[in-house]
Prior knowledge:
Helix content: 40-55%
Amino acid sequence: MLKTLFLQPPSFEGFDGGAGSRYQARREIKSFWYPTWLAQPAALVPGSKLIDAPPARIELPEIVRQIGAYELCVIHTSSPSFPNDVRVAEALKAANPRLKIGFVGAKVAVQPNESLSDAPVIDFVAGAEFDYTILDVAKGLDFADIDGISYRDANGRIVHNKARAQIADMDALPFVSDVYARDLRMEDYFIGYLRHPYVSIYTGRGCKSRCTFCLWPQTVGGHKYRVRSPENVAAEVARIRTLFPQAKEIFFDDDTFTDDLPRAEAIARLLGKMGVTWSCNAKANVPRETLKILKDNGLRLLLVGYESGNQQILHNIKKGMLVDVARRFTKDCHELGIKIHGTFILGLPGETRETIEQTIKFATELNPHTMQVSLAAPYPGTYLHRQAVENGWLDASRAELIDEHGIQIAPLTYPHLSHTEMFDSLEDFYKRFYFRVPKIAAIVGEMLTDRQMLVRRLREGREFFAFLKERQSQRQAA
């Protein structure tokens, strides 16, 4: 077995690069997701190590100092971070010329030829679901015998092996929580809407929905929801409680945990017996009776992708959601005492100044506990990216999706709506949602009754206003 390092490379201050984060950029409030997509193959490879550099504040010189002990380095990359990740790989190869370097992640899964051509330092890239692919590489198998990779042969020709079959038995995968405990410091991971400290895991992969913008199902996970058994999930939760007794919440990061309602209810009942507080991703169509079962068995919060308040835009992006159903679902959550973190996207196909206004009013009407606004990001490999290229919506000079500081930009532009207008509307959205008297009163009340929340909200407030100031500087520079 090759001595293997799994690496989320150092990057911009506060940049969450995609090993667990769904939006590869610096956020308005600093947050870090667990690098679950790296931890899973790390759990398969004996003697491996995982370094998640950004949250641990590990700089490149420290990784270079350690790299001599390794024979294989697996780097998680993304479209926005790829140039920086290549520079990291070059520094590691210079320090250890015998090191094999492989890149994984959606970027290289959909652009294997371009990635290898652009970066000679990369020895191989892995496609789609790469857990067992990396295990085969770590075993020292000849590249020609490994499904799911692209590499250069002895003549320098790029070779694409056949695709690896998707994992069918999800229960066969080892627990990622053991890798978390071995290599990570849980206090480094924090999300504004989750209790701190928290732990996040996947209970399944894939999503039945066909949202045109969503990266993971279209590139890595697929559209079939492949799941772990409720008993297997409960067993890892019990393991987490042993490894991390200080954890205040467990988050299930499946694309849509509520895609399988009977299974979600079964898991909830097992967690309820354990007295666990948990949260998950959900679509805004869960029936009230299921919501009540989940709430009665420890559910605290749902992360819900509303995206837009305009029905036509939801049709355009194949969201499969009706605005009125989302309203009823949100009302049910409020009445049952389930908190919601709502996410919205500006700049999707069909967006106009009028639909932006409609979405802002929709968000304030729904009044989730917290919310997040993103700019439409056409990641390569998504239907949205193909649409943008075919219709001339994507500004080629903005294709990296972030600026030189790691902040998300507005890469799409329409004849009736410029990227500047979309960029500016994001700030307006945040101000109009959070700077309302009822919302301010709710936040202050929460802070006065919970000292930990007081400290967190003060920190997040400083970060939020610094974010707005940096965006203003960005606008002036443009």
